[in-house]
Amino acid sequence: MRRRIWRGLAVVVLIASVGLFALVRAVRGPSNPASVSAAVPTRIAGVMVLDAAAGLVTGPADVVLRDGRIEAVGPAAGAGEPGLVLIEGAGLTLLPGLIDVHVHLASGTALPGPLALPETRHHLGALVLAGVTTVLDTSGPLDELRELGEATRHGDVAGPEILYAGPALTAPGGHPIAIFEAVLPWFLHDFVKEHLALPIAGPQEAQAAVAGLVAGGAHVIKVMLDDIPVHGPELDDPTLRAIVAAARAHDRIVIAHVGTDADARRAAQAGVGALVHLPYRDRITPETAQLLAREGIPVATTLQVWTRLTELLDRRAPLTALERRLAPQANMAALLRRVPELTATDLPEPLHAWFDVVRAGQPLLAENTRTIVDAGVTLLAGSDSANVGCYPGAALHRELELLVAAGVPAPDVLRAATASNAAFLGLDDRIGAVRPGFEADLLLVRGDPTRDIAAVSDIVAVWADGRRVLSLP
Ligand SMILES: [Zn+2]
How remote is the CA of residue 101 from the centroid of ligand 1, in Å? Predict the structure, then answer.
Protein backbone atom coordinates (compact mmCIF):
# COMPACT_ATOMS: atom_id res chain seq x y z
CA MET A 1 0.00 0.00 0.00
CA ARG A 2 2.69 2.41 1.06
CA ARG A 3 4.72 1.55 -2.04
CA ARG A 4 1.74 2.36 -4.24
CA ILE A 5 1.35 5.79 -2.60
CA TRP A 6 5.02 6.56 -3.18
CA ARG A 7 4.75 5.47 -6.79
CA GLY A 8 1.68 7.70 -7.23
CA LEU A 9 3.49 10.61 -5.62
CA ALA A 10 6.50 10.10 -7.89
CA VAL A 11 4.24 10.26 -10.94
CA VAL A 12 2.66 13.49 -9.66
CA VAL A 13 6.10 15.03 -9.03
CA LEU A 14 7.24 13.95 -12.47
CA ILE A 15 4.20 15.52 -14.16
CA ALA A 16 4.58 18.69 -12.09
CA SER A 17 8.26 19.07 -12.96
CA VAL A 18 7.66 18.46 -16.66
CA GLY A 19 4.92 21.11 -16.51
CA LEU A 20 7.20 23.50 -14.64
CA PHE A 21 9.99 22.91 -17.14
CA ALA A 22 7.60 23.63 -20.02
CA LEU A 23 6.44 26.79 -18.25
CA VAL A 24 10.01 28.01 -17.67
CA ARG A 25 10.85 27.29 -21.32
CA ALA A 26 7.77 29.17 -22.48
CA VAL A 27 8.59 32.17 -20.32
CA ARG A 28 12.22 32.27 -21.47
CA GLY A 29 11.24 31.92 -25.13
CA PRO A 30 12.65 29.51 -27.70
CA SER A 31 16.30 28.48 -27.36
CA ASN A 32 19.23 29.09 -29.71
CA PRO A 33 18.86 26.89 -32.81
CA ALA A 34 22.60 26.97 -33.62
CA SER A 35 26.01 26.15 -32.20
CA VAL A 36 29.52 26.93 -33.44
CA SER A 37 32.50 24.60 -33.87
CA ALA A 38 36.06 25.48 -32.90
CA ALA A 39 37.88 27.55 -35.56
CA VAL A 40 39.66 24.76 -37.45
CA PRO A 41 42.04 25.57 -40.34
CA THR A 42 39.96 25.13 -43.50
CA ARG A 43 40.48 25.21 -47.26
CA ILE A 44 37.53 25.97 -49.54
CA ALA A 45 38.66 24.72 -52.94
CA GLY A 46 37.59 25.79 -56.42
CA VAL A 47 34.96 28.29 -55.29
CA MET A 48 33.67 31.43 -57.00
CA VAL A 49 34.17 34.49 -54.80
CA LEU A 50 31.96 37.59 -54.60
CA ASP A 51 33.83 40.85 -55.05
CA ALA A 52 31.13 42.94 -53.42
CA ALA A 53 32.70 46.32 -54.14
CA ALA A 54 33.08 45.53 -57.85
CA GLY A 55 29.71 43.80 -57.99
CA LEU A 56 30.86 40.57 -59.64
CA VAL A 57 32.05 37.06 -58.88
CA THR A 58 35.60 36.01 -59.67
CA GLY A 59 37.44 32.71 -59.65
CA PRO A 60 37.40 29.84 -59.18
CA ALA A 61 39.81 30.33 -56.30
CA ASP A 62 40.93 28.52 -53.18
CA VAL A 63 40.33 30.21 -49.84
CA VAL A 64 42.17 29.32 -46.63
CA LEU A 65 40.76 30.14 -43.18
CA ARG A 66 42.96 30.01 -40.07
CA ASP A 67 42.63 31.36 -36.53
CA GLY A 68 39.39 33.14 -37.32
CA ARG A 69 40.84 35.03 -40.29
CA ILE A 70 40.93 34.65 -44.04
CA GLU A 71 44.56 33.70 -44.59
CA ALA A 72 44.75 33.43 -48.37
CA VAL A 73 42.59 33.80 -51.48
CA GLY A 74 43.89 32.65 -54.86
CA PRO A 75 44.60 29.79 -57.21
CA ALA A 76 45.86 26.72 -55.31
CA ALA A 77 46.02 28.59 -51.98
CA GLY A 78 46.72 26.04 -49.26
CA ALA A 79 47.09 23.22 -51.79
CA GLY A 80 49.03 20.28 -50.35
CA GLU A 81 49.17 21.81 -46.87
CA PRO A 82 48.49 19.17 -44.24
CA GLY A 83 45.85 19.56 -41.55
CA LEU A 84 43.33 21.66 -43.48
CA VAL A 85 39.68 20.65 -43.48
CA LEU A 86 38.72 20.53 -47.18
CA ILE A 87 35.44 21.96 -48.46
CA GLU A 88 34.71 21.37 -52.16
CA GLY A 89 33.52 24.68 -53.64
CA ALA A 90 32.63 23.67 -57.22
CA GLY A 91 29.33 25.27 -58.26
CA LEU A 92 29.29 27.38 -55.12
CA THR A 93 29.87 31.08 -54.37
CA LEU A 94 31.61 32.42 -51.29
CA LEU A 95 30.32 35.75 -49.94
CA PRO A 96 31.40 37.92 -47.04
CA GLY A 97 29.06 37.33 -44.08
CA LEU A 98 25.93 39.44 -44.44
CA ILE A 99 25.41 42.50 -42.23
CA ASP A 100 21.99 43.69 -41.02
CA VAL A 101 22.08 47.32 -39.82
CA HIS A 102 18.54 47.36 -38.42
CA VAL A 103 17.65 44.64 -35.91
CA HIS A 104 16.06 44.46 -32.47
CA LEU A 105 17.49 41.43 -30.69
CA ALA A 106 15.40 41.96 -27.56
CA SER A 107 12.12 42.03 -29.49
CA GLY A 108 9.78 39.24 -30.50
CA THR A 109 8.20 37.93 -33.69
CA ALA A 110 5.04 36.59 -32.04
CA LEU A 111 1.65 38.22 -32.27
CA PRO A 112 0.74 40.45 -29.33
CA GLY A 113 -0.42 38.38 -26.37
CA PRO A 114 0.59 37.18 -22.92
CA LEU A 115 3.46 35.06 -24.28
CA ALA A 116 4.79 37.62 -26.75
CA LEU A 117 8.18 37.70 -25.08
CA PRO A 118 11.59 38.51 -26.58
CA GLU A 119 13.20 35.56 -28.37
CA THR A 120 16.72 36.90 -28.09
CA ARG A 121 18.54 33.57 -27.82
CA HIS A 122 16.67 32.21 -30.82
CA HIS A 123 17.39 35.33 -32.90
CA LEU A 124 21.14 34.98 -32.38
CA GLY A 125 21.30 31.47 -33.84
CA ALA A 126 18.80 32.19 -36.62
CA LEU A 127 20.88 35.17 -37.76
CA VAL A 128 24.12 33.22 -38.20
CA LEU A 129 22.32 30.23 -39.72
CA ALA A 130 21.08 32.72 -42.34
CA GLY A 131 24.66 33.94 -42.92
CA VAL A 132 24.18 37.23 -41.05
CA THR A 133 27.43 37.55 -39.10
CA THR A 134 27.22 41.21 -37.96
CA VAL A 135 24.23 43.24 -36.79
CA LEU A 136 23.48 46.75 -35.59
CA ASP A 137 20.78 46.66 -32.92
CA THR A 138 18.91 49.94 -33.34
CA SER A 139 17.12 49.99 -30.00
CA GLY A 140 17.47 47.57 -27.13
CA PRO A 141 18.76 47.14 -23.60
CA LEU A 142 22.42 48.26 -23.43
CA ASP A 143 23.58 45.89 -20.69
CA GLU A 144 22.06 42.80 -22.25
CA LEU A 145 23.37 43.65 -25.71
CA ARG A 146 26.87 44.22 -24.36
CA GLU A 147 26.83 40.83 -22.62
CA LEU A 148 25.43 39.07 -25.70
CA GLY A 149 28.09 40.74 -27.85
CA GLU A 150 30.83 39.42 -25.56
CA ALA A 151 29.33 35.92 -25.63
CA THR A 152 29.12 35.72 -29.43
CA ARG A 153 32.58 37.25 -29.86
CA HIS A 154 34.14 34.58 -27.66
CA GLY A 155 32.19 31.80 -29.38
CA ASP A 156 30.35 30.91 -26.15
CA VAL A 157 27.06 31.49 -27.97
CA ALA A 158 26.35 31.02 -31.69
CA GLY A 159 25.45 34.48 -32.96
CA PRO A 160 26.63 37.52 -34.91
CA GLU A 161 28.98 40.30 -33.86
CA ILE A 162 26.69 42.86 -32.21
CA LEU A 163 26.88 46.64 -32.37
CA TYR A 164 24.13 48.61 -30.69
CA ALA A 165 22.45 51.93 -30.07
CA GLY A 166 20.81 51.10 -26.76
CA PRO A 167 17.47 52.79 -26.03
CA ALA A 168 16.26 55.10 -28.82
CA LEU A 169 15.80 58.80 -28.03
CA THR A 170 12.20 59.86 -28.54
CA ALA A 171 9.63 62.44 -27.46
CA PRO A 172 7.90 61.68 -24.14
CA GLY A 173 5.10 59.27 -25.07
CA GLY A 174 6.47 59.01 -28.62
CA HIS A 175 7.38 56.00 -30.73
CA PRO A 176 7.95 53.21 -29.68
CA ILE A 177 6.56 53.78 -26.16
CA ALA A 178 2.94 54.23 -27.28
CA ILE A 179 2.93 51.26 -29.66
CA PHE A 180 4.43 48.88 -27.11
CA GLU A 181 1.93 49.98 -24.49
CA ALA A 182 -0.84 49.27 -26.99
CA VAL A 183 0.28 45.80 -28.06
CA LEU A 184 2.28 44.31 -25.17
CA PRO A 185 0.95 42.91 -21.91
CA TRP A 186 1.12 45.34 -19.01
CA PHE A 187 3.94 43.52 -17.22
CA LEU A 188 6.32 44.34 -20.09
CA HIS A 189 5.59 48.09 -20.21
CA ASP A 190 8.25 49.04 -17.68
CA PHE A 191 10.82 46.88 -19.44
CA VAL A 192 10.12 48.72 -22.68
CA LYS A 193 10.25 52.17 -21.14
CA GLU A 194 13.46 51.42 -19.33
CA HIS A 195 15.36 49.53 -22.02
CA LEU A 196 14.07 50.28 -25.50
CA ALA A 197 13.29 54.00 -25.44
CA LEU A 198 14.61 57.07 -23.65
CA PRO A 199 12.20 60.03 -23.62
CA ILE A 200 13.82 63.46 -24.15
CA ALA A 201 11.71 66.46 -23.14
CA GLY A 202 13.87 69.16 -24.78
CA PRO A 203 17.35 70.23 -25.97
CA GLN A 204 18.53 70.67 -22.37
CA GLU A 205 18.25 66.90 -21.82
CA ALA A 206 20.20 65.82 -24.90
CA GLN A 207 23.71 66.14 -23.49
CA ALA A 208 23.14 63.96 -20.43
CA ALA A 209 21.12 61.36 -22.39
CA VAL A 210 23.79 60.92 -25.07
CA ALA A 211 26.61 60.87 -22.50
CA GLY A 212 24.78 58.12 -20.59
CA LEU A 213 24.29 55.99 -23.69
CA VAL A 214 27.93 56.38 -24.74
CA ALA A 215 29.08 55.48 -21.22
CA GLY A 216 26.96 52.34 -21.55
CA GLY A 217 28.83 51.38 -24.73
CA ALA A 218 26.44 52.66 -27.45
CA HIS A 219 28.11 52.58 -30.87
CA VAL A 220 25.54 54.93 -32.44
CA ILE A 221 22.68 57.13 -31.19
CA LYS A 222 19.18 56.36 -32.48
CA VAL A 223 16.42 58.97 -32.77
CA MET A 224 12.74 58.48 -33.61
CA LEU A 225 11.17 60.95 -36.07
CA ASP A 226 7.69 59.60 -36.69
CA ASP A 227 4.25 59.76 -35.11
CA ILE A 228 3.15 56.23 -34.25
CA PRO A 229 0.27 55.93 -33.55
CA VAL A 230 -0.84 58.87 -35.71
CA HIS A 231 -0.76 62.31 -34.07
CA GLY A 232 1.60 61.04 -31.37
CA PRO A 233 4.36 63.36 -30.05
CA GLU A 234 7.64 63.73 -32.00
CA LEU A 235 11.08 65.19 -31.23
CA ASP A 236 11.26 68.82 -32.37
CA ASP A 237 14.10 70.32 -34.41
CA PRO A 238 15.97 72.08 -31.56
CA THR A 239 16.04 68.80 -29.59
CA LEU A 240 17.13 66.84 -32.64
CA ARG A 241 19.96 69.29 -33.32
CA ALA A 242 21.06 69.17 -29.69
CA ILE A 243 21.19 65.34 -29.88
CA VAL A 244 23.30 65.47 -33.06
CA ALA A 245 25.69 67.99 -31.46
CA ALA A 246 26.01 65.87 -28.30
CA ALA A 247 26.64 62.73 -30.37
CA ARG A 248 29.34 64.49 -32.40
CA ALA A 249 31.04 65.60 -29.19
CA HIS A 250 31.27 61.88 -28.32
CA ASP A 251 32.38 60.89 -31.83
CA ARG A 252 29.13 59.06 -32.53
CA ILE A 253 26.72 59.37 -35.43
CA VAL A 254 22.96 59.68 -35.09
CA ILE A 255 20.75 57.25 -37.01
CA ALA A 256 17.14 58.19 -37.61
CA HIS A 257 13.90 56.30 -37.86
CA VAL A 258 11.83 58.38 -40.30
CA GLY A 259 8.28 58.06 -41.59
CA THR A 260 7.77 60.79 -44.17
CA ASP A 261 9.66 62.82 -46.75
CA ALA A 262 9.55 65.77 -44.30
CA ASP A 263 11.07 63.60 -41.53
CA ALA A 264 13.87 62.55 -43.91
CA ARG A 265 14.55 66.16 -44.87
CA ARG A 266 14.71 67.50 -41.33
CA ALA A 267 16.89 64.55 -40.28
CA ALA A 268 19.30 65.40 -43.10
CA GLN A 269 19.25 69.11 -42.28
CA ALA A 270 19.98 68.37 -38.62
CA GLY A 271 23.06 66.35 -39.62
CA VAL A 272 22.17 62.72 -38.88
CA GLY A 273 24.56 60.04 -40.15
CA ALA A 274 22.03 57.66 -41.71
CA LEU A 275 18.34 56.91 -42.12
CA VAL A 276 17.40 53.42 -40.95
CA HIS A 277 14.07 53.45 -42.78
CA LEU A 278 13.06 54.72 -46.18
CA PRO A 279 10.06 57.10 -45.89
CA TYR A 280 7.11 54.70 -45.95
CA ARG A 281 4.16 57.07 -45.45
CA ASP A 282 4.47 59.27 -48.53
CA ARG A 283 6.52 59.85 -51.65
CA ILE A 284 10.15 60.90 -51.16
CA THR A 285 10.84 63.90 -53.37
CA PRO A 286 13.83 64.01 -55.73
CA GLU A 287 14.96 67.12 -53.80
CA THR A 288 15.12 65.22 -50.51
CA ALA A 289 16.86 62.29 -52.21
CA GLN A 290 19.44 64.70 -53.68
CA LEU A 291 19.95 66.28 -50.26
CA LEU A 292 20.68 62.81 -48.80
CA ALA A 293 23.10 62.06 -51.63
CA ARG A 294 24.86 65.43 -51.32
CA GLU A 295 25.26 65.08 -47.54
CA GLY A 296 26.48 61.48 -47.90
CA ILE A 297 23.64 60.13 -45.77
CA PRO A 298 22.99 56.43 -46.55
CA VAL A 299 19.58 54.77 -46.18
CA ALA A 300 18.63 51.31 -44.90
CA THR A 301 15.34 50.79 -46.69
CA THR A 302 13.66 48.11 -44.46
CA LEU A 303 11.13 47.31 -47.20
CA GLN A 304 10.48 43.94 -45.58
CA VAL A 305 9.06 45.28 -42.30
CA TRP A 306 6.42 47.42 -44.06
CA THR A 307 5.68 44.70 -46.59
CA ARG A 308 5.20 42.06 -43.89
CA LEU A 309 3.02 44.36 -41.81
CA THR A 310 0.83 45.06 -44.84
CA GLU A 311 0.62 41.34 -45.61
CA LEU A 312 -0.51 40.62 -42.06
CA LEU A 313 -3.09 43.42 -42.23
CA ASP A 314 -4.30 41.85 -45.48
CA ARG A 315 -4.49 38.56 -43.56
CA ARG A 316 -1.73 36.92 -45.54
CA ALA A 317 1.66 35.54 -44.52
CA PRO A 318 3.53 34.33 -47.61
CA LEU A 319 6.56 32.98 -45.75
CA THR A 320 9.79 32.23 -47.61
CA ALA A 321 11.49 28.83 -47.42
CA LEU A 322 14.20 30.33 -45.19
CA GLU A 323 11.60 31.87 -42.87
CA ARG A 324 9.89 28.50 -42.53
CA ARG A 325 13.22 26.89 -41.71
CA LEU A 326 14.53 29.48 -39.23
CA ALA A 327 11.47 31.00 -37.52
CA PRO A 328 10.56 29.90 -33.97
CA GLN A 329 8.15 27.16 -35.04
CA ALA A 330 5.52 27.72 -32.33
CA ASN A 331 5.33 31.47 -33.06
CA MET A 332 5.07 30.91 -36.78
CA ALA A 333 2.36 28.28 -36.37
CA ALA A 334 0.37 30.62 -34.11
CA LEU A 335 0.80 33.45 -36.60
CA LEU A 336 -0.46 31.36 -39.50
CA ARG A 337 -3.36 30.07 -37.40
CA ARG A 338 -4.39 33.59 -36.39
CA VAL A 339 -3.85 35.36 -39.72
CA PRO A 340 -7.58 35.26 -40.61
CA GLU A 341 -8.55 37.14 -37.43
CA LEU A 342 -5.65 39.61 -37.35
CA THR A 343 -7.45 42.82 -38.24
CA ALA A 344 -10.16 42.01 -35.71
CA THR A 345 -7.67 42.39 -32.84
CA ASP A 346 -8.64 44.67 -30.06
CA LEU A 347 -6.20 47.56 -30.55
CA PRO A 348 -6.64 51.32 -29.91
CA GLU A 349 -8.07 53.38 -32.75
CA PRO A 350 -4.95 55.54 -33.40
CA LEU A 351 -3.01 52.34 -34.03
CA HIS A 352 -5.57 51.21 -36.60
CA ALA A 353 -5.21 54.64 -38.21
CA TRP A 354 -1.45 54.07 -38.40
CA PHE A 355 -2.03 50.63 -39.95
CA ASP A 356 -4.05 52.38 -42.67
CA VAL A 357 -1.12 54.76 -43.24
CA VAL A 358 1.30 51.82 -43.61
CA ARG A 359 -0.97 50.00 -46.01
CA ALA A 360 -1.55 53.16 -48.09
CA GLY A 361 2.21 53.71 -48.32
CA GLN A 362 3.00 50.18 -49.49
CA PRO A 363 2.70 50.93 -53.25
CA LEU A 364 5.22 53.79 -52.86
CA LEU A 365 8.07 51.72 -51.39
CA ALA A 366 9.52 50.49 -54.70
CA GLU A 367 9.20 53.97 -56.23
CA ASN A 368 10.89 55.60 -53.21
CA THR A 369 13.69 53.06 -53.46
CA ARG A 370 14.28 53.94 -57.11
CA THR A 371 14.16 57.67 -56.32
CA ILE A 372 16.99 57.46 -53.80
CA VAL A 373 19.04 55.07 -55.96
CA ASP A 374 18.66 57.36 -58.99
CA ALA A 375 19.80 60.31 -56.85
CA GLY A 376 22.97 58.39 -55.93
CA VAL A 377 22.15 57.72 -52.26
CA THR A 378 24.16 54.83 -50.76
CA LEU A 379 21.91 51.87 -50.01
CA LEU A 380 22.34 49.97 -46.77
CA ALA A 381 20.60 46.69 -45.95
CA GLY A 382 18.46 46.37 -42.84
CA SER A 383 15.43 44.27 -41.99
CA ASP A 384 13.93 45.77 -38.80
CA SER A 385 13.49 42.24 -37.44
CA ALA A 386 12.41 41.10 -34.93
CA ASN A 387 8.97 42.59 -35.27
CA VAL A 388 5.70 40.70 -35.53
CA GLY A 389 6.20 38.12 -38.30
CA CYS A 390 9.70 39.45 -39.15
CA TYR A 391 12.12 36.60 -38.47
CA PRO A 392 15.75 37.63 -37.89
CA GLY A 393 18.17 36.36 -40.52
CA ALA A 394 15.50 35.25 -42.98
CA ALA A 395 14.10 38.80 -42.91
CA LEU A 396 17.34 40.25 -44.32
CA HIS A 397 17.17 37.77 -47.22
CA ARG A 398 13.62 38.95 -47.88
CA GLU A 399 14.84 42.56 -47.82
CA LEU A 400 17.42 41.73 -50.51
CA GLU A 401 14.74 40.08 -52.67
CA LEU A 402 12.39 43.05 -52.24
CA LEU A 403 15.16 45.46 -53.26
CA VAL A 404 15.76 43.47 -56.44
CA ALA A 405 12.00 43.38 -57.08
CA ALA A 406 11.99 47.18 -56.66
CA GLY A 407 14.47 47.43 -59.52
CA VAL A 408 17.88 47.51 -57.80
CA PRO A 409 20.40 45.26 -59.61
CA ALA A 410 21.41 42.19 -57.58
CA PRO A 411 25.13 43.13 -57.40
CA ASP A 412 24.18 46.51 -55.87
CA VAL A 413 21.90 44.81 -53.35
CA LEU A 414 24.71 42.42 -52.37
CA ARG A 415 27.08 45.38 -51.98
CA ALA A 416 24.60 47.06 -49.62
CA ALA A 417 24.45 44.00 -47.35
CA THR A 418 28.24 43.57 -47.24
CA ALA A 419 30.73 46.29 -48.25
CA SER A 420 28.42 49.31 -47.80
CA ASN A 421 27.08 48.16 -44.45
CA ALA A 422 30.65 47.43 -43.28
CA ALA A 423 31.82 50.91 -44.33
CA PHE A 424 28.82 52.53 -42.63
CA LEU A 425 29.71 50.73 -39.38
CA GLY A 426 33.37 51.76 -39.74
CA LEU A 427 34.40 48.08 -39.90
CA ASP A 428 35.46 47.89 -43.56
CA ASP A 429 39.06 47.23 -42.54
CA ARG A 430 38.06 43.80 -41.21
CA ILE A 431 34.63 42.70 -42.53
CA GLY A 432 32.49 43.07 -45.66
CA ALA A 433 34.94 41.48 -48.14
CA VAL A 434 36.53 38.09 -48.86
CA ARG A 435 40.09 39.34 -48.48
CA PRO A 436 43.27 38.02 -46.80
CA GLY A 437 43.55 39.37 -43.25
CA PHE A 438 39.81 39.96 -42.95
CA GLU A 439 37.69 38.11 -40.40
CA ALA A 440 36.52 34.70 -41.58
CA ASP A 441 32.84 35.77 -41.58
CA LEU A 442 31.67 33.87 -44.64
CA LEU A 443 28.58 32.57 -46.38
CA LEU A 444 28.81 29.72 -48.90
CA VAL A 445 25.83 29.37 -51.27
CA ARG A 446 24.79 27.38 -54.34
CA GLY A 447 24.77 29.26 -57.64
CA ASP A 448 25.59 32.88 -58.47
CA PRO A 449 23.69 35.49 -56.43
CA THR A 450 24.80 38.34 -58.73
CA ARG A 451 22.60 36.73 -61.42
CA ASP A 452 19.81 35.48 -59.18
CA ILE A 453 19.41 37.00 -55.71
CA ALA A 454 17.53 33.89 -54.55
CA ALA A 455 20.89 32.06 -54.58
CA VAL A 456 21.88 33.93 -51.38
CA SER A 457 19.24 31.94 -49.51
CA ASP A 458 20.49 28.59 -50.86
CA ILE A 459 22.95 28.23 -48.00
CA VAL A 460 25.58 25.48 -47.86
CA ALA A 461 27.75 26.71 -44.97
CA VAL A 462 28.40 29.72 -42.73
CA TRP A 463 31.48 30.69 -40.73
CA ALA A 464 31.49 33.34 -38.01
CA ASP A 465 35.04 34.36 -37.01
CA GLY A 466 36.24 31.14 -38.63
CA ARG A 467 33.91 28.99 -36.54
CA ARG A 468 31.56 26.83 -38.57
CA VAL A 469 27.91 27.52 -37.71
CA LEU A 470 25.98 24.31 -37.07
CA SER A 471 22.25 23.81 -36.95
CA LEU A 472 21.06 22.12 -33.78
CA PRO A 473 18.54 19.31 -34.29
ZN1 LIG B 1 13.33 49.29 -35.89
Answer: 10
